[in-house]
Amino acid sequence: MKAGIHYALISSLLLLLSGLSHAADCHAVQAKYGCPADTRFPLHLSFDDGPALQTTDVLDALRREQVPATFFVLAEKIDCGRTLQQCFQANPDTAADGSNCLAYRQCELRRTILHQARQDGHMIGSHSYAHLRYSGLPVELVRSHVSASKRLLEPFFTTEPALFRLPYGDGWFNRKEKAHVLQELARQNFLHVDWQISAFDWDTRNQQDDKILDKVLGQVCSRRYGGIALFHDGVAHQPHQGRLHTTQNMSRWLPMMRCVVEFEPLEYFLQNFKVKPR
User: Fold this and answer.
1) Residue 57 dihedral angles phi and psi, to the nearest 5°
2) For the chain, what are the domain ranges?
3) Distance CA 97, CA 236 (A)
4) What does the mean pLDDT of the chain come to?
5) Lowest mean pLDDT among 9-13, 131-135, 183-187
6) In the chain, N or C: fewer CB atoms in 10 Å?
7) Pairing relationship of beta strands 123-126 and 69-73 according to DSSP bridges
8) Section 136-149 average pLDDT
């Protein structure tokens, strides 16, 4: 019994120390970014280009801090049927279940990670099939990729209509000149979700120290409003690798962000749209 009690005490102490290691000095955070001490701005976190292996680090951080998020997924990263066909083409000795093909096993793992994100209560949307600039592509290809993403992500969608975010924002930023892209999304019953705050975490110049956090809180505090923030958990053209500086630091950044923002669910920012949970 004594050993059990000692073990429980040690476990509790380690858990407490783990929490303290991520505690934030809110006075310092507010002073650094010039934010008022008595105001919290509403913010929702969104992540593009996943799922990746390191998406699990983001999910762990969100779960620990009880923060809701939305993941916009590149459907080709969970197109395991296509991956298995590529395995057969590359190696005729590939097992029927793909068990001896690394690329297929990694694809199945990404599907599992995406399922976990949904189970954790996060919103799931499409980032189309591939990371392309769709406004410059033929309408037929746009239609095909939007449709393929819908078919592959159907089991994971969390809203009706399903959510969509265009890669690069292309087709949304230039929606007046290239209206056909958003028209195709509407035709396939998607709701496009933009962003107001960018972490610019895709830029290698920001992938050091807290420059990504600086970008986000700098925008929030200087503008005096929040919104939907754009991060990346994956890397567009690397199937299994995550956006490492983001995924590795999210657990440390969340408590610091909380000194300035109030984390809100996506519905908070979609009140003018008729979106129903599935």
Assistant:
1) -65, -40
2) 24-270
3) 27
4) 93
5) 9-13
6) N
7) parallel
8) 97
Spell out the SS3 assignment of the chain: CHHHHHHHHHHHHHHHHHHHHCCCCHHHHHHHHCCCCCCCEEEEEEEEEECCCCHHHHHHHHHHHCCCEEEEECHHHHCHHHHHHHHHHHCCCCCCCCCCCHHHHHHHHHHHHHHHHHHCCCEEEECCCCCCCHHHCCHHHHHHHHHHHHHHHCCCCCEECEEECCHHHCCCCCCCCCCHHHHHHHHCCEEECCCCEECCCCCHHHCCCCHHHHHHHHHHHHHCCCEEEEEECEECCEEEEECHHHHHHHHHHHHHHHCCEEECCHHHHCCCCCCEEC
∠ CA 224-228-230, nearest 5°, is 110
If pLDDT is split at 50, 70 and 90, which confidence band does 271 have?
A: confident
Stated length of the chain:
278
**What global pTM score does this model have?**
0.91
Listed range (19-33, 182-196, 221-235) with the worst mean pLDDT: 19-33
Q: How many CB atoms lie within 10 A of CB 112?
A: 12
Q: What separation in angstroms does the CA of 83 have from each of 88, 98, 130, 187, 239?
A: 9, 9, 14, 29, 11
Rounded Cα distance between 243 and 266, Å, is 22
Give φ, ψ of 77 to 5 degrees.
-75, -15
pLDDT digits (tens, 9 = 90+) for 88-112: 999 999 999 999 999 999 999 999 9
Backbone φ and ψ of 168, nearest 5° = 65, 0
Say how far apart CA 220 and CA 161 lie, in whole Å. 29
**Structure-token pair, residue 201:** 């975490």
